[in-house]
Amino acid sequence: MTLDDDLCTRPATELAAMVRGREISARELLDAHLERIDRLNPTVNAVVTLDADGARAAADAADAALAAGEDVGPLHGLPVAHKDTHATGGMRTTWGSPLHAETVPLRDELVVARLAAAGAIRVGKTNVPEFAAGSHTFNPLFGATHNPYRHGLSAGGSSGGAAAALAAGLVPLAEGSDMGGSLRNPAAFCNVVGLRPTPGRVPTWPAAMGWSQLSVQGPMGRTVADVALQLSVLAGPDPRVPISLSDDPARFAAPLPERLDGLRVAWAPDLGGQVTVDPAITAVLAPSVAVFESLGAAVEEDCPDLSGADEVFGTLRAWLFESSFGEISRRSPEKVKESIRWNAEMGAKLTGPDLARAEQLHTTLYERMVAFFERYDVLLAPTTQVLPFPVEIEYPTEIAGVHQDNYLEWMRSCTVISATGCPALSVPGGFTDDGLPVGLQVIGAPRADRRVLEVGHAFEQATRFGERRPPV
């Protein structure tokens, strides 16, 4: 491993301190990452748009600001890649669709703007499934993203390019979004960390459905502390976003504990019988119970009542898909993939009573989760039900002999949690005997984002699974 390679696999927290302390310049840090992108990205296919010249100019400006003694942000000089569904002013944003192959937005959306305001250096865009639909990253424009731990296997999705870029050391920070697992699933597949925050924690703007709580944006990183640092600049209220939370985001950057004395933990290896999980995943995660007990936590096998969560997620997702893709699916069906057409068609069939029932179920589900978290501090579960699968497959159609009906079924370990409104963190949970990563999902009470970060960090420090780098 070269010195530059070592630099490109260090935590973002360390790199930020090195830049601020003038141990390394932002330009040197950027050039190390650009060299690695040039060398490794053709194999991984994680970064699909690159602006090396623009990034170099920004890095030089960052160094000049530091030399002039200007106040700098917490991410000053750190390279960052943006999900290709997030609008970047002056940089191509395709949503993984031929319909937007040449689209160049005029301005940054909020998540991009907040990272820039914190000093991050925009390098490029990361690959996504078409319109971020599905947890496997491939599209007609750029093809499939490969898992850095095993070429030929999926990196997950829809933030698969972001997770693969982090794992391969192409960038120290990335961001994504999560409706049904799109921050958590790829984090698990690629042995990195992804946080689905409480809805409103990271405001999404602009948004056609500003009151919706199903899809959220959030941070990804190689360590929990990196994710917490990024959350401290992404979170915070915005008056244009009706569900945005007003808590001070600075608290997320405070030091994280390494002990969990007195923590009350519920362990649900199949979410109370709600999901089918590949036995190889269960085998990898089973020792986690002893790790938490060694950290001072009390662990019981228990699970909240998640009945109705499938209907809530399925109905609200279909409604959103009809709103976003119904017209194009009917007018030019050949221009969107079949799974999008199917989901939009499901939405078109919904009635007012269907939506009312989903919202009623949503309310009672939320109340049950609040009651559950009066007895426990966190809930642990597998992030994914399957291991990374071949990139040629759109989605797994069978898990442990159980047929999966559609492209959403195999992600239910994440989708049912999305419906609860709870924050959920995927942290590296170990490896199979043949070296494939497995993610542990840490779920907290509504708005307890800081708690899931604390728990994930303590587990991470005790196990060090995230330090196992891929063969690339």
UniProtKB/TrEMBL annotation:
Gene3D superfamilies: Amidase signature (AS) domain. It comes from the Bacteria. Residues 28-453 form the Amidase domain. SUPFAM superfamilies: Amidase signature (AS) enzymes. PANTHER family: INDOLEACETAMIDE HYDROLASE, TRANSAMIDASE. This is Amidase. GO terms for molecular function: catalytic activity. It comes from Blastococcus mobilis. The lineage of its organism: Bacteria, Bacillati, Actinomycetota, Actinomycetes, Geodermatophilales. InterPro entries: Amidase, Amidase_CS, Amidase_dom, AS_sf.
